[in-house]
């Protein structure tokens, strides 16, 4: 393993108070695509996801459902595992914060913070939003239509007064500002870093990190009347999963600091302010990057359980197909921006970009090979300038796609790939291999070979996004499982003339609009 560079990527761990919807799926999908990309690019990847099971919000949800919190979390956590299986997510681990390894890790981190004089006992009197599991200062609140006080997220707040341990966050203002200044890509997109910097510049208060008014949490060592604040507990999952508190292990040394914590924009402050401060206070390195993606609305509306418009990933996949959903969600909005989910746009992309652009390219080329080349890879003759141009575009894809992926610019990566798909379609139209069949069969064979090579490149590079369809494309080119990594891009590993290829079958069917209209909401 030592010879391969490491890459550690994490999703937020999901609150188990709710069934998963496409908002949750989106964060994990982005990580899955990146994890698959990095594996194909030769990295030793660790991809972590899981569930956030403690705290007042989950406790309340358990009570409402009439179950004790452990039984409740066992049940709801399973929904998130099921989602990962449904989506064929390639996570290497699934962590639950109720696991013994995690309780041990959190208590060890607490002890370290205590030993480093970063924790003291006091009492908290202030506002708390259970929905956000966050403390708010009076100045941050607004007044709702009914006169009730609201957090910036719109969540209702309640007044809390209780004994509490505090973390000396106020001491970390300068080190945090230095961290951001030294690592301008610590938070992406850049605009989000500015938000974080101005928040920290505004001054940091010590942070309440324990609660006493309920019991559903990890007990504070030596003071079990307190449970740890759920965000301290939850954030620690990222190091639990690589063996914390054992830090001299191969796993910890290989994977810490994490390369990317992928999060939604709503939870950026916890990841980009509190988490690096906890880590630095414990003598550990902060993560290399926190990427904050945007939020999905549905047909122009905020997605929520109460509005009844939360989209169920299972229904979506049954309607459109797994690869189709993966593609559309990452193609529809520049990653980092908010997006609006509309069935019309999903169908437009499935039929336009997947079926027409990519699917037809593969289908028409492979049908011609089946009919005119005896179902084997044709022998190419001398290349023309146009052949070389298309092959050069294919060869140039990896650096462009890699650069985009390293900035989590999934839409740019897909743009670059689709530019080559369109170039290949233009090449087919101009070369008209069907017309060459009689007039110049040698040239037809060259054209089809060049196109098969282009499709091989496109199949390899689209694997992270549409793994099943890309796999079927590579099967149809008789590209073996060991020849599908990015190391096999380029002419050196080109298709071998005379290799038999299986009969082609369509990979991206068109979606019939009538079947989808008005459906898709849970
Ligand atoms: N438990 C915390 C995270 C702890 S990480 C140490 C949490 N959980 S959550 O279940 O509420 O949200 C998890 C992720 O889902 C967040 O990244 C959030 O942004 C994302 N999304 C939830 N709804 C969403 C949309 N409508 N659109 C896009 N992402 C959304 O926060």
Present the secondary structure layout.
Blueprint: E1 6-10, E2 14-15, H1 22-40, E3 44-52, H2 56-65, H3 69-86, E4 93-96, H4 100-115, E5 119-129, E6 134-136, E7 142-143, E8 149-150, E9 158-167, H5 173-182, E10 187-188, H6 190-201, E11 207-208, E12 210-211, E13 219-220, E14 223-228, H7 230-235, H8 237-240, H9 250-255, E15 260-264, H10 268-281, E16 290-293, E17 296-298, E18 301-302, H11 313-320, H12 322-332, E19 339-341, H13 343-372, H14 385-395, H15 397-406, H16 410-431, H17 433-439, H18 441-462, H19 467-476, H20 513-516
Parallel strand pairs: 1-3, 1-15, 2-3, 3-4, 10-16, 15-16, 17-19
Antiparallel strand pairs: 5-6, 5-9, 7-8, 9-11, 12-14, 13-14, 17-18
Helix pairs in contact: 2-3, 5-6, 11-12, 12-13, 13-16, 13-18, 14-16, 14-18, 15-16, 16-18, 17-18, 18-19
Bound molecules: 5'-O-[(L-methionyl)-sulphamoyl]adenosine.
Shape descriptor reads elongated
In helices, the fraction of residues equals 40-55%
Q: Characterize the main sheet.
A: 7 strands, parallel
Q: How many domains, in number, for the residues?
A: 2
Mean pLDDT over the full residue set: 95
Got a strand count? Answer: 19
């Amino acid at each position: 393993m030592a010879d391969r560079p490491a890459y550690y990527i994490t999703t937020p761990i999901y609150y188990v108070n709710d069934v998963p919807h496409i908002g949750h799926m989106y964060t994990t999908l982005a990580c899955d695509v990146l994890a698959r990309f990095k594996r194909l690019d030769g990295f030793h990847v660790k991809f972590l996801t899981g569930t956030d099971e403690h705290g007042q919000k989950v406790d309340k949800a358990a009570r409402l459902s009439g179950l004790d919190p452990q039984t409740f979390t066992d049940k709801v956590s399973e929904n998130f595992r099921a989602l990962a299986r449904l989506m064929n997510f390639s996570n290497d681990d699934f962590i639950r914060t109720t696991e013994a390894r995690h309780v041990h890790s959190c208590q060890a981190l607490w002890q370290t913070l205590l030993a480093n004089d970063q924790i003291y006992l006091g009492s908290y009197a202030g506002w708390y939003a259970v929905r956000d599991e966050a403390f708010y200062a009076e100045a941050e609140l607004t007044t709702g239509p009914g006169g009730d006080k609201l957090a910036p997220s719109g969540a209702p707040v309640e007044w809390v007064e209780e004994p509490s341990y505090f973390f000396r966050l106020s001491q970390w203002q300068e080190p945090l500002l230095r961290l951001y200044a030294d690592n301008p890509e610590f938070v992406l997109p850049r605009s989000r870093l500015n938000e974080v910097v101005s928040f920290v510049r505004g001054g940091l208060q010590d942070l309440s990190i324990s609660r006493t008014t309920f019991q559903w949490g990890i007990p504070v060592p030596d003071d079990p009347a307190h449970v740890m604040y759920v965000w301290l507990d939850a954030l620690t999952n990222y190091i639990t999963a690589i063996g914390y508190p054992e830090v001299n292990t191969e796993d910890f040394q290989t994977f810490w600091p994490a390369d990317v914590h992928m999060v939604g924009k709503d939870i950026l402050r916890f990841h980009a302010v509190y988490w690096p401060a906890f880590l630095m206070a414990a003598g550990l390195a902060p993560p290399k990057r926190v990427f904050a993606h945007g939020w999905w609305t549905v047909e122009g509306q905020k997605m929520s359980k109460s509005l009844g418009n939360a989209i169920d990933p299972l229904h979506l996949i049954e309607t459109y197909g797994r690869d189709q959903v993966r593609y559309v969600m990452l193609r529809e909005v520049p990653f980092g921006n908010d997006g609006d989910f509309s069935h019309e746009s999903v169908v437009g992309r499935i039929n336009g970009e997947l079926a027409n652009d990519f699917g037809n390219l593969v289908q028409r080329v492979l049908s011609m090979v089946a009919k005119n080349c005896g179902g084997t890879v044709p022998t190419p003759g001398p290349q023309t300038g146009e052949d070389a141009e298309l092959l050069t575009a294919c060869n140039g894809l990896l650096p462009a796609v890699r650069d985009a992926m390293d900035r989590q610019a999934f839409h740019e990566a897909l743009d670059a790939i689709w530019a080559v798909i369109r170039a290949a379609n233009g090449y087919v139209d101009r070369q008209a291999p069907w017309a060459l069949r009689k007039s110049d069969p040698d040239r037809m064979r060259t054209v089809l070979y060049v196109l098969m090579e282009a499709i091989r490149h496109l199949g390899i590079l689209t694997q992270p996004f549409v793994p099943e369809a890309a796999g079927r494309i590579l099967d149809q080119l008789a590209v073996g499982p060991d020849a599908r990594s990015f190391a096999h891009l380029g002419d050196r590993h080109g298709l071998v003339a005379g290799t038999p290829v299986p009969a082609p079958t369509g990979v991206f069917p068109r979606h019939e609009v009538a079947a989808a209209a008005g459906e898709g909401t849970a």
